[in-house]
Amino acid sequence: MIITISREYGASGRAVTHGLAERLGYRLLDEDLPVVVAARLGMSPEAVDGIEYRQSGFGQRLLRSLSTAMPEAFQPAPEVEDLHAETQREIERLIHEAADAGNVIVVGRLGNMVLRDRPDVLRVFLTAPLAWRTAQIVTALGLTEQAAKAEIARVDGGRRHHAREEAQFDWGDPHYYDLVLDVSHFGVEGAIALIDAARAPHG
User: Fold this and answer.
1) d(Cα 29, Cα 2) in Å, to the nearest integer?
2) How far, in Å, are 63, 77, 168, 188 from residue 71 at the CA level?
3) 8 and 172 in contact (C-beta within 8 Å)?
4) Phi and psi dihedrals of 11, rounded to 5?
5) CA-based Rg of the chain, rounded to a whole angstrom?
6) Closest CA to 148 of 156, 161, 14
7) What is the pLDDT of residues 101-146, one digit of tens each?
8) CB-based contacts of 95-104 (< 8 A; 24+ apart in sequence)
9) What is the model's pTM?
10) pLDDT confidence of residue 165
11) Which residues sit opposite 77 in a β-bridge?
């Protein structure tokens, strides 16, 4: 069984994913993924993160679209574009390898879309009201409320942009998930129990 978990920033995603992995005895594909990709590509994990989540400008997106429509009229994409594509392919390859091994929780990395053709995947999205998430970030990072809201907007905005750029879908749209959970309502332990219960019919 494979579980993919997408999460809004501040929705206790780390606590839920780590608690779920411990409860089920599943491998957690999360922080270690950039490390493995970096080793395979001969890069640093920080470089992998930077390349994966970079936000390309309008000019780059336009050139990419035009080069696809009229390849004979445009030169190949710059080296950074090639490196980005190679990094993304390696990430997807690792996710597929982990899924083939089974019993894994894939956190973020567009796992719900990368594995969308597999029948043995439970796709989860963790959410919570902005005020609740803001309070979590204020407590965890010691930020002001204004700074916490700005950080939430930055992180979630990057995830939304990444989803549109790489997989052409609206991140957070419930149609792309099997289970959407409000962690503020159910709590961390409740969310873990519900994901475990939702997993059972698939197994």
Assistant:
1) 11
2) 10, 11, 21, 50
3) yes
4) -95, 30
5) 18
6) 156
7) 999 999 998 999 999 999 999 999 999 999 999 999 999 999 999 9
8) 95/29, 98/2, 98/27, 98/29, 99/2, 101/27, 102/1, 102/2, 103/1, 103/2, 103/24, 103/25, 103/26, 103/27, 104/2, 104/3, 104/26, 104/27, 104/28, 104/29
9) 0.79
10) 87
11) none
Give CA–CA dist 86/82, Å, rounded. Answer: 6
Amino acid at site 79? E
CA distances from 75 to 49, 69, 72 (A): 27, 13, 8
Per-residue DSSP letter, 10: T
Q: What is the pLDDT of residues 40-81, one digit of tens each?
A: 666 665 555 655 455 444 334 444 444 444 444 444 444 545
Report the alpha-carbon distance of residue 135 to residue 200 in Å, rounded: 33
One-letter amino acid at 193 equals: A
Q: How far apart are CA 113 and CA 123, in angstroms?
A: 9
The tokens describing 165, both together, are 């750029």
Q: Which two tokens stand for residue 164?
A: 């549109």
Q: Which of 25, 200, 18, 33 is nearest to 126 (CA)?
A: 18
What's the DSSP call for residue 72? Answer: G
Eight-state DSSP code of residue 78: P
